[in-house]
Amino acid sequence: MLLTDEVSLTYLEADRVVKAVDQVSVEVRHGEFVGIMGPSGSGKSSLLYLMSGLKLPTGGEVRYQNRVIHLLSERERMLLRRREFGFVFQQPYLLPYLTALENVLVAVPGDRDAYQRAVQLFEQLGLLHLVNRYPHKLSGGERQRVCVVRAMVHQPRIIFADEPTASLDHINGHAVIRLLASYREQGAVVVVTHDPEMLADADRVYSLRDGRLVLPSRV
Ligand SMILES: Nc1ncnc2c1ncn2[C@@H]1O[C@H](COP(=O)(O)OP(=O)(O)O)[C@@H](O)[C@H]1O
Ligand SMILES: [Mg+2]
């Protein structure tokens, strides 16, 4: 459903060229949990930004369901991200003055089914006891799980998560990964991490170093 064809992203700094992503070809198929691994600075976030259309390639291309992302208009790209992609970031950011459920619902303004779907999701995921809590009454792991529910509630085709477990302990990290991985039944999940343990259950794992794909990738 999504693939990159020798995609590159080069940053021009004052006096140097940084090849953050260097001719990388990866693939995400429907029903997959795909991992992207690599040390800090290896280009993981940059690759994720390219895959999700947040940044445009300086070489190669990204195709999502046979549409070349950089050939879409800015508005089309924005709509694509909003309707078809969901995002989870490293820091589980929730609005402090809204409950868990309200935080999930602010992502879907005007969607009348969203409330039902959100409550159902919390229930299915065993998080119903959290719905009326404010973020300061949630642990880091619980907050991140609420962020995953928020990404899921608008039923994206692909969820992109950038180091979603980096600020969590092991037990909470695994719970967040389990939750994300469960979404592959509805579409696909792409998780960036530097912790190989989090990708034990992935269908496909790509490894990056200095912006390039390296072995061993589990394809
Ligand atoms: N906006 C930017 N301007 C210049 N260089 C950047 C920018 N963002 C990232 N880089 C550089 O690109 C490389 C890859 O960064 P990044 O994709 O954030 O890696 P990772 O997520 O694996 O830590 C690094 O060398 C980083 O310093
Ligand atoms: Mg990063």
Q: Can you put this structure into words, describing what you see?
A:
By secondary structure, this protein is an alpha/beta fold. It has a single domain, classed as P-loop containing nucleotide triphosphate hydrolases (Rossmann fold, 3-Layer(aba) Sandwich). Helices cover 29% and strands 28% of the residues. The strands form 2 sheets. A 6-stranded mixed beta sheet has the order 7-8-9-4-10-11, with helices on both faces. Strands 1, 2, 3, 5 and 6 form a 5-stranded antiparallel beta sheet that branches. The longest helix has 14 residues, at 140-153. It is globular, with a radius of gyration of 17 Å. It binds adenosine-5'-diphosphate and magnesium ion. Magnesium ion binds next to α1.
Q: What are its keywords?
A:
five-stranded antiparallel sheet, globular, 6 helices, six-stranded mixed sheet, binds adenosine-5'-diphosphate, alpha/beta, 219 residues, binds magnesium ion, Rossmann fold
Shape: globular
Overall mean confidence score, pLDDT: 93
CATH hierarchy class name: Alpha Beta
CATH topology: Rossmann fold
Structural class: alpha/beta
Bound ligand species: adenosine-5'-diphosphate, magnesium ion
**Ends apart, CA distance between termini:** 16 Å
CATH superfamily: P-loop containing nucleotide triphosphate hydrolases
How would you describe the oligomerization state of the chains in this entry?
A: single chain
Number of E-type strands: 11
**Helical stretch count?**
6
Radius of gyration: 17 Å
Percent of residues in helices comes to 25-40%
Beta content: 25-35%
